[in-house]
């Protein structure tokens, strides 16, 4: 690959769950020597923290109070909220569903978007999520949106989460997709200037190559 300014490069990878974002984002970060920022992990950890603190997220003042004093610490190996490490508990369907619900709340989004923008100031990173290209970093140029049909995404999630019923995974995914794409604050949509890639017919290396070629072309 032609030399790109690694100190400045920031790549946004958005899309629905099961579109291949996480694996692809991690590989791109590794190949280009960039940090990997998983914003979904932050929403999942905050959802578990809210749940653990028994916050009624439909009670605006209770939620505001939590958001105002919330501290988030993300590293590639750990995610902490208010000093508690949630790394080991965020990868469950329940955490995903809780995250999908609490991430529709504006005060949760405001706090996390501000934190994510702070991380991006350092540059040299790949940031993965739902709203990176549209809301968190709308001014960057390297934006990708990974999609695939519902069937393909549900099959992939089923392969990852062994032991869970395929139908249950498919239904949970439908529910999350609906919540994520119909919320009023920062719904899941493709940024107008993002490159859309249907990952259904490609393997992971195929998607990674497409993205790297696109970045190379644009950095000439
Ligand atoms: O990518 P994920 O499955 O770990 O995300 C969990 C939930 O968090 C997802 O249903 C929606 C929410 N999320 C979000 O609203 N914005 C992001 N940038 C990342 C995740």
How does this structure look, described?
With 220 residues, the chain is α/β, with parallel strands linked by helices. It contains nine helices and eight strands. It has two domains: 9-34 and 124-211, Rossmann fold, CATH 3.40.50; 38-122, 3-Layer(aba) Sandwich (Rossmann fold), CATH 3.40.50. The N and C termini lie close together (10 Å). The structure holds 2'-deoxycytidine-5'-monophosphate. 2'-deoxycytidine-5'-monophosphate binds next to helix 2, helix 4 and helix 8.
Q: What is the C-alpha radius of gyration, as a whole number of Å?
A: 17 Å
Helix amount: 40-55%
Oligomer: single chain
* Tally of discrete structural domains: 2
> How would you classify the helix and strand content by structural class?
alpha/beta
Straight-line distance between termini:
10 Å
CATH architectural arrangement of the largest domain: 3-Layer(aba) Sandwich
Outline type: globular
Order of helices and strands: EHEHHEEEHHEHEHHEH
- Biggest sheet statistics: 5 strands, parallel
**Average pLDDT level:** 93
* CATH class wording of the largest domain: Alpha Beta
Name the poorly predicted regions. Answer: none
Q: Count of helices?
A: 9
Q: What is the fold named in CATH at topology level of the largest domain? A: Rossmann fold
> If strands are numbered along the chain, what order do they take across the biggest sheet?
2-6-1-7-8
CATH superfamily of the largest domain: P-loop containing nucleotide triphosphate hydrolases
Associated small molecules:
2'-deoxycytidine-5'-monophosphate
* Number of E-state strands: 8
């Amino acid at each position: 690959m032609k030399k790109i300014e690694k100190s400045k490069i920031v790549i946004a990878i958005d899309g629905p769950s099961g579109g291949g974002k996480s694996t692809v984002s991690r590989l791109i970060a590794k190949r280009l020597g960039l940090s990997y920022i998983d914003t979904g992990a932050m929403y999942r950890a905050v959802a578990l923290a809210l749940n653990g603190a028994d916050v009624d997220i439909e009670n605006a003042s209770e939620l505001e109070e939590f958001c105002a004093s919330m501290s988030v610490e993300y590293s590639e190996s750990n995610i902490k909220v208010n000093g508690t490490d949630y790394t080991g508990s965020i990868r469950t369907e329940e955490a995903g569903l809780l995250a999908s619900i609490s991430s529709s709340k504006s005060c949760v989004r405001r706090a996390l978007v501000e934190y994510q923008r702070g991380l991006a100031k350092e540059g040299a990173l790949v940031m993965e999520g739902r709203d990176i290209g549209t809301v968190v970093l709308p001014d960057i140029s390297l934006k990708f949106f990974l999609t695939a049909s519902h069937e393909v995404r549900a099959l992939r999630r089923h392969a990852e989460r062994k032991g869970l019923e395929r139908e249950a995974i498919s239904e949970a995914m439908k529910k999350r997709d609906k919540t994520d794409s119909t919320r009023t604050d920062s719904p899941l949509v493709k940024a107008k200037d993002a490159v859309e890639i249907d990952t259904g017919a490609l393997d992971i290396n195929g998607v990674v190559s497409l993205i790297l070629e696109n970045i190379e072309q644009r950095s000439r």
